[in-house]
Amino acid sequence: MRLFVPLLAGARWSDRLTACLGALLGIAATAAASSLAPHPGSFPFLVAPMGASAVLLFAVPSSPMAQPWPIVGGSIVSALVGVTIARLIPDPQLALGLGVSLAILAMSALRCLHPPGGACAILPILAGGSPAATDYGFVLLPVGLNALLLVATGLLFHRFSGHSYPHRPVPVAGHTVIATANGILPEDVDRALEELGETFDVAREDLDLLFRVAEKHALDRAPGSGPRA
């Protein structure tokens, strides 16, 4: 049964239902608006990686990979890599591997790592038989337009969802966060992350806030301590 335990810490059913509504509105609005623009050749007006981007944008809007620049920049940069590889490498297996690997490198260098970007790099390579596959216009239309429209709907939706977007590490309204009694500094969080040697899909500032809130609850539980705001 442990396989069916929710993987995301802090996720509630209300958040999941909100994410479902956001994805419904976001993808529908993006598809409707994109369908009004001319799109290249055989490519659809909405590319499949936008579905994965919507999962991040509406289900985990606090993720560093779900912020506006990763969604837009990661999608465009990866599509650019994919088109270039499709033009230069005739072997599809080698092209697919290079496309995804170089997309990861480019997104990392430009601080816009976005998992669906790997799919954006694959699209033009898989469709190598289509003239539109090697057309650099594909990078902006439909990929760039799709990403911009999806982020725009996300910005509007999250004004009412209860989540900050673009994400800011702030406490819930009506609550304050105390300074940690043990003097944990952001630099200590950096050192801990470096020591663990793992990459976590959470911003350092969010980790710092989480530690402070957790310490507040620990102090509230201590004998003789009254509850803190």
From TrEMBL:
Judging by the UniProt lineage, the source's domain of life is Bacteria
Residue ranges annotated as coiled coil are none
Query: Which keywords, in A-to-Z order, does the entry hold?
Result: Membrane, Transmembrane, Transmembrane helix
Transmembrane segment boundaries: 43-62, 69-88, 139-158
Boundaries of every HPP transmembrane region domain copy: 12-166
Q: Which InterPro entries does the record cross-reference, listed alphabetically?
A: HPP (IPR007065), TM_HPP (IPR058581)
State if Secreted is listed as a keyword.
no
- Does the keyword field hold Nucleotide-binding? no
Q: Which residues form the signal peptide?
A: none
Supply the PANTHER family for this chain: TRANSMEMBRANE PROTEIN DDB_G0269096-RELATED
UniProt-recorded name of the protein: HPP family protein
- The scientific name of the source species is Allosphingosinicella deserti
